[in-house]
Amino acid sequence: MLERHASRATRRAREFEAFVAGAAGRLLHAATLLTAEAPDDNPRARRLLTLSLAHTYASWDRLRGEDPYDRTRSHLAVRFARGAWHHGGLGRSRPDPASPLAPLTPQERLVLVLRLYEGVAEEQTAALLGLSPERVRAVCHRATSTLLHRPRGPAPAVTATKAVPS
Fold this sequence. Notes:
mainly alpha; about 0% strand
């Protein structure tokens, strides 16, 4: 009995390690986009991912055919939303100005990452975040519009050059 339990624990650990090896990079990138941190300096994104992976590992045996990537991504999104919207934790710190999603609010970043980066359907995003599909559509449209039409930096200075007579 003890050997069977040890064997199951070893198999579980190997399966989870293989999952993390394959999915951690993409999940970390999604978390970094959510927190709008620099890719090489992203402690909040790493903490968010670590907590989400720990939650997935704790429920590994209960997944029963459910995709662990979807479970981890959902937990990542919910944890980010809870911290950014309700407790002010993740939303309080300023995003890195170099981040492409820095001009967006935490809600806009979350909807945009789920819808466009992760490819989650509008209805699934709405259900996950407790919003109506119309609200998700509006937030996604506003975020996309903000990114596409954000003011550019000052135009480069034009220097006058004299025409050389030929």
